Structure to design on (689 residues):
């Protein structure tokens, strides 16, 4: 494992339970700048719950979060954003009745003179970033409910990228996309990686994991099965970690 | 991430004349629909009067002026109800709140304040209004707190409020009617003295015209600055012209409604002149000006501030709003507090107009307010609603109501018609939305 410098993110012994069920049980994972760490496991393994402790949607019952070696408290999504943590949720978390610019700036609206929303500036900025991410995008004045799955995804991604994220959480970003759109997301991940962002990628598709991730952390029933460098293991190794909950590299 | 490059709006040349017109002027088709419905109602009642009563009483300055006053209190509350419904809530208590707030203000200005500052003191009306506004805001905030922080459904909280506040209104004075209210306070309810006269109305009208022109100009400037699509010049000019004509028309209308002879004589005696036969215009009634002011402020709040944006985000997707760092509970509580404050404004107008406070004041208003918001295009599933729509909705409701009174329908039939229209309006709206999608 790379131990050259302090990790960008270090989640230590995170635990959280709901109604007596331990959704996440003393899980530790870390993430370095310019690295993509895949989070794998069955549905209900606790991946999304773990990551929501980092994005501020949940508060961990126990455990610590370190950003750049400094301990931080993340109580809500606002705290996470203050740490330059951006999240692309599986559901995309868009307000369907609002247009692209309103969604992109939701919670961080640009304010013009007089304390009023600067709609034009926000739309202009949205046009700029969308021109980079998705040059075909034209529906700036329609509610996002009128957009296709791929267009909605690009709005969610634009929101994460626009605000200079250092840490990006992507919860199954390609689940609802066609092959061509998935390919564009892959390219974007490579590109952001080069810019030095750290990315947690929750992903079910094992090929995508092998292609995009540097390391993979596998969870099962709320526990961490293990974290391996993707280059050191085979697809079958990872699959057996997911299915059997055993790390084949660790000899019993 | 996108394969359909055909999502640009079709260019003007591909569209029919009407579609091109709507596209260029960017007029909301729903607005046109509501204006059409209104024209139909107004014309229908007038025509009915002409044919069956030999006198069309609806399209007269007098009736339209009264209609504007009657619309004020429901219209003001409907603007608040838009925000309540947009956040996927409901407020059933506004009618009862009117009762209790009006009683509080009535007791204050008739029985309490005169003992402290003396009968007829100039500050009585102001203190009564301020206390009323605070009282209303607090009641609304209490509802909002129970709904947002204690997570009791809004339907239940405000249903409880409907009963509690009506009961309180009765208890506060043992069921007595408190009257007459302070003289200045009474002006807020309209009437010949509670209107601003011909000159004042022209001043308001011309200011409004300048406002329309400036809004169009500022909008165009901002679009040019950011290189957005511009409306064609003719469309901008036409919008300005239509807006101003409507305003001037309204001024001419309210100015052509004269004071009744008795009031002119009374006024003449007061100022020591013989005004017999003089034409004194009503002009805009004060409650109507309050409604217009509230409408403008609420529109700004909804479209130009973070608060308004958050209200709609919560209505569209509460989870997404929370994940975006919005304090959804606090916003919800503020929405109900605002509803309470607007209800207090409506209570001022309603009790001033009646010149008294009764414990039954505002009974059934909640239903008219909700109906106005819904007819105005507010979606009960949340996230969608317009302030001007709610005000027009209130005008539609009130037009039906007073139109039926004018042609002599009794109240049982009035209720049936209003009920049917409400259901029909929502059904048409659902059809419209399906077509749009």
């Amino acid at each position: 494992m790379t131990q050259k410098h302090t990790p960008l993110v270090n989640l230590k012994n995170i635990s959280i339970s709901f109604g007596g069920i331990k959704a996440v049980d003393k899980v530790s994972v870390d993430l370095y700048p310019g690295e993509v760490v895949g989070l794998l496991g069955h549905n209900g393994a606790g991946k999304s719950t773990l990551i929501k402790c980092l994005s501020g949607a949940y508060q961990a019952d126990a455990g610590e979060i370190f950003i750049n070696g400094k301990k931080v408290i993340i109580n809500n999504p606002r705290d996470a954003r203050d740490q330059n943590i951006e999240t692309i949720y599986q559901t995309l978390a868009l307000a369907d009745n609002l247009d692209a610019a309103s969604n992109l700036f939701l919670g961080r609206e640009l304010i013009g003179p007089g304390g009023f929303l600067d709609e034009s500036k926000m739309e202009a900025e949205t046009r700029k970033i969308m021109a980079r991410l998705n040059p075909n995008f034209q529906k700036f004045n329609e509610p996002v409910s009128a957009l296709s799955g791929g267009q909605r995804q690009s709005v969610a991604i634009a929101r994460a990228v626009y605000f200079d994220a250092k840490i990006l959480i992507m919860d199954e970003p390609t689940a609802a996309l066609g092959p061509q759109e998935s390919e564009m997301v892959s390219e974007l991940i490579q590109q952001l990686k080069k810019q030095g962002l750290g990315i947690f990628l929750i992903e079910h598709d094992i090929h995508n994991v092998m292609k995009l991730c540097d390391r993979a952390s596998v969870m099962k029933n709320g526990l961490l099965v293990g974290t391996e460098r993707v280059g050191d293991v085979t697809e079958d190794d990872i699959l057996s970690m997911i299915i059997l909950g055993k790390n084949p590299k660790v000899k019993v | 991430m996108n394969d359909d490059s055909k999502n640009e709006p079709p260019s003007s040349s591909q569209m029919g004349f009407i579609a091109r017109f709507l596209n260029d002027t960017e007029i909301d088709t729903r607005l046109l629909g509501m204006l059409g419905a209104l024209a139909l109602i107004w014309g229908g009642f007038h025509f009915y009067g002409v044919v069956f009563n030999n006198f069309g009483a609806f399209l007269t300055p007098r009736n339209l002026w009264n209609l504007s006053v009657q619309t004020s209190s429901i219209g003001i509350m409907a603007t608040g109800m838009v925000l309540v419904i947009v956040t996927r809530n409901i407020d059933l208590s506004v009618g009862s709140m009117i009762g209790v707030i009006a009683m509080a203000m009535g007791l204050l200005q008739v029985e309490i304040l005169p003992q402290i500052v003396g009968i007829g003191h100039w500050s009585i009306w102001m203190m009564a209004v301020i206390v009323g506004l605070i009282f209303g805001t607090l009641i609304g905030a209490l509802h909002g707190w129970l709904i947002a922080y204690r997570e009791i459904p809004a339907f239940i909280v405000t249903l409880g409020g409907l009963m509690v506040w009506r009961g309180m209104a009765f208890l506060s004075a043992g069921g007595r009617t408190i009257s007459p209210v302070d003289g200045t306070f009474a002006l807020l309810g309209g009437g010949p003295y509670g209107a601003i006269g011909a000159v004042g109305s022209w001043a308001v009208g011309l200011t409004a015209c300048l406002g329309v022109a400036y809004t169009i100009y500022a909008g165009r400037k901002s679009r040019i600055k950011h290189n957005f699509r511009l409306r064609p010049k003719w469309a901008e000019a036409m919008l300005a012209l239509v807006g101003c004509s409507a305003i001037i028309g309204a001024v001419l209308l309210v100015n052509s409604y004269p004071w009744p002879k008795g009031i002119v004589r009374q006024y003449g005696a007061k100022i020591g002149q013989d005004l017999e036969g003089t034409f004194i215009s009503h002009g805009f009634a004060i409650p109507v000006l309050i409604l217009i002011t509230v409408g403008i402020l609420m529109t700004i709040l909804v479209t130009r501030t973070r608060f308004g944006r958050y209200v709609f985000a919560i209505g569209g997707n509460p989870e997404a709003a929370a994940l975006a760092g919005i304090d959804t509970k606090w916003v919800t509580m503020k929405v109900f507090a605002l509803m309470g404050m607007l209800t207090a404004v409506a209570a001022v107008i309603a009790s001033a107009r009646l010149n008294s406070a009764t414990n039954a004041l505002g009974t059934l208003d909640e239903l008219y307010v909700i109906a106005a918001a819904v007819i105005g295009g507010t979606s009960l599933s949340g996230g969608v609603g317009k302030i001007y729509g709610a005000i027009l909705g209130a005008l539609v409701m009130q037009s039906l109501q007073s139109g039926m009174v004018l042609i002599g329908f009794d109240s049982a039939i009035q209720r049936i018609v209003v009920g049917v229209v409400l259901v029909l309006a929502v059904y048409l709206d659902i059809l419209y939305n399906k077509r749009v999608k």
Residues 94-163 of chain A form one domain. The mean pLDDT of chain A is 90. The longest strand of chain A covers residues 21-31.
